[in-house]
């Protein structure tokens, strides 16, 4: 589906004028593309790398209100996020599902009354439709925690496959007419004759094309400030603060399906989340960052910090040798008040630059994955008003591709009935990755022989070809670390074979 048609940047690439061109293929850019296309606007989105290749695939994988934000009095943000949590659970049940979180009590850090008050607010700042309320806990000898930790609390939030959320949102945008151009950078944006004149560069071929638009959206995430300064040539009116969050992945720390939220002496918290059946995901840190966001990686200090917090809580000790993978993401926050990075607001700001007679620019600053749909709705509301193109908001009850089913158990049962030859583990993974789109992936398959070449770790050529054709996948990393998480399990050398295979097959992708 990647649009690879490119031209020299002479006349416009086509005679049409776009209503909106969006720079950035993360969760916010794709969310705006979906909403705007669904309201009848002519939309083009460009992304310099793969969809969700930066911040949006390097999160803590949570749809949550942000319990810790209550300590910074961010009640509006928490309430807004909790309301969005309910909407997203309905709209994407294949990639978002409920999760219980256990909070061990450490009396020297926060008293019981403070935690109870925080959980009461968390339960009631927005209406809960499906998730159970918080409760107290007592830990016994079966607990994975150290024996001196005997008391705690439990509450509800949700888990998300963050990269798949972005890809499915882009699919929904494309289904409604949006053009999605990956590996395509915006290298020039100028206001001329009442329109934006945009030059795009195909990162694979170096060829450039020229496009025109009535409005421009800067959804560059940690590159938003750089885009304003060097590409769009518009003053940076809001100072951005780049904050790096890092995670480590280790062999599974406990058998239960619940997650843990651990308090530390510096008033930060660390999550321990069941991850891909065999692993635990641990994070995150919050440190100020300078440099190229694409080059962000975990530091020795961050690694030691996360191991220290775990070893203060779990009786199974962790060392550096236990870490099987790590990743880091950089967020652009608009908080300009200084202070600790963890205290900077995770709320978003839509900065509109619209002078009379000039095409508008909307820059997305800040935000968190949980509120992406709400952000996109507010941004599209403003775009429709600026373009004098009124249309009703529609995404709150919009099911993402593959999410049209009742529950995981019934969908899994349907898949096992229709495809009895499919291994149970594969059917389970497809349920939680593709939902009802599994039928499209398996169309015409009658046995495992029809799945094609096996690369290991439950990955077959049929799935790879599907991802090339329908999800803009072009490289092994696209498949192994964003469309799936099978990079955690694939044997050494298999990724190179997969890359060779994809370089040949990618020419089959749909135009």
Question: Could you give a quick summary of the protein structure above?
Answer:
28% of the residues lie in helices and 24% in strands. The protein is of the alpha+beta class and 511 residues long.
How would you characterize the overall build of this protein?
With 511 residues, the chain is α+β, with helices and mostly antiparallel strands. The protein folds into three domains: 18-55 and 164-240 and 346-397, FAD/NAD(P)-binding domain (3-Layer(bba) Sandwich); 96-159 and 241-334, D-Amino Acid Oxidase, subunit A, domain 2 (D-Amino Acid Oxidase, Chain A, domain 2, 2-Layer Sandwich), CATH 3.30.9.10; 408-508, Alpha-glycerophosphate oxidase, cap domain (Helicase, Ruva Protein, domain 3, Orthogonal Bundle), CATH 1.10.8.870. 28% of the residues lie in helices and 24% in strands. It is built from 13 helices and 20 strands. It has helices spanning 27-38, 75-91, 112-124, 162-175, 224-231, 300-311, 372-386, 408-418, 424-431, 438-441, 461-470, 476-483, 494-505; strands at 18-23, 43-46, 62-63, 96-104, 135-138, 151-160, 179-181, 184-192, 195-202, 208-218, 241-251, 259-263, 269-275, 279-283, 287-288, 325-333, 348-353, 361-366, 454-456, 459-460. The strands form three sheets. Strands 3, 4, 5, 6, 11, 12, 13, 14, 15 and 16 form a ten-stranded mixed beta sheet that branches. Strands 1, 2, 7, 8, 9, 10, 17 and 18 form an eight-stranded mixed beta sheet that branches. The radius of gyration is 23 Å and the shape is globular. The termini are close together. Mean pLDDT is 92; it is low at 1-8.
């Amino acid at each position: 589906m990647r649009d690879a048609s490119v031209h020299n940047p002479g006349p416009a690439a086509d005679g049409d004028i776009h209503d909106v061109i969006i720079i950035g293929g993360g969760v916010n850019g794709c969310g705006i593309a979906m909403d705007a296309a669904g309201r009848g606007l002519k939309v083009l989105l460009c992304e310099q790398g793969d969809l969700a290749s930066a911040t949006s695939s390097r999160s803590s994988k949570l749809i949550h209100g942000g319990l810790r934000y209550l300590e910074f009095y961010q009640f509006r943000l928490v309430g807004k996020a909790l309301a969005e949590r309910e909407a997203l659970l309905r709209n994407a049940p294949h990639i978002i599902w409920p999760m219980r979180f256990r909070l061990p009590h450490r009396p020297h850090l926060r008293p019981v009354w403070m935690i109870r008050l925080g959980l009461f607010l968390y339960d009631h700042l927005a209406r809960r439709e499906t998730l159970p309320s918080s409760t107290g806990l007592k830990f016994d000898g079966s607990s994975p925690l150290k024996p001196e930790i005997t008391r705690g609390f439990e509450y509800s939030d949700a888990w998300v496959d963050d990269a798949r959320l972005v890809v499915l949102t882009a699919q929904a945008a494309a289904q409604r007419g949006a053009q999605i151009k990956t590996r395509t950078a915006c290298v020039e944006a100028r206001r001329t004759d009442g329109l934006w004149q945009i030059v795009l560069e195909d990162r694979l071929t170096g060829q450039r094309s020229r496009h025109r638009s009535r409005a421009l959206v800067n959804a560059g995430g940690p590159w938003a400030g750089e885009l304003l300064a060097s590409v769009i040539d518009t003053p940076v009116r809001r100072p951005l603060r780049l904050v790096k969050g890092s995670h480590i992945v280790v062999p599974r720390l406990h058998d239960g399906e619940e997650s843990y939220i651990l308090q530390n002496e510096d008033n930060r918290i660390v999550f321990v989340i069941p991850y891909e059946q065999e692993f635990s995901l641990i994070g995150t840190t919050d440190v100020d960052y300078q440099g190229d966001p694409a080059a962000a990686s975990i530091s020795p200090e961050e690694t030691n910090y996360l191991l220290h917090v775990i070893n203060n809580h779990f009786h199974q000790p962790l060392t550096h040798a236990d870490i099987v993978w790590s990743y880091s993401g950089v967020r652009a926050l608009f908080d300009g008040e200084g202070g600790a990075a963890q205290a900077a607001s995770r709320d978003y700001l839509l900065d509109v630059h619209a002078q009379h007679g000039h095409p508008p620019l909307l820059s997305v600053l800040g935000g968190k994955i949980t509120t992406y749909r709400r952000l996109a709705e507010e941004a599209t509301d403003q775009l429709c008003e600026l373009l004098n193109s009124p249309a009703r908001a529609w995404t709150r009850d919009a099911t993402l591709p593959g999410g049209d089913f009742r529950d995981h158990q019934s969908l899994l049962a349907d898949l096992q009935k229709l495809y009895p030859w499919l291994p149970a583990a594969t059917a389970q993974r497809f349920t939680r990755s593709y939902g009802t789109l599994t039928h499209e992936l398996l169309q015409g398959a009658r046995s495992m022989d029809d799945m094609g070449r096996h690369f290991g770790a439950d990955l077959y050529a049929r799935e790879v070809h599907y991802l090339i054709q329908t999800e803009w996948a072009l490289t092994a990393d696209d498949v192994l670390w964003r469309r799936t998480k099978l990079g955690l399990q694939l044997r050494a050398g298999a990724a190179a074979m997969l890359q060779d295979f994809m370089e040949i097959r990618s020419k089959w992708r749909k135009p």
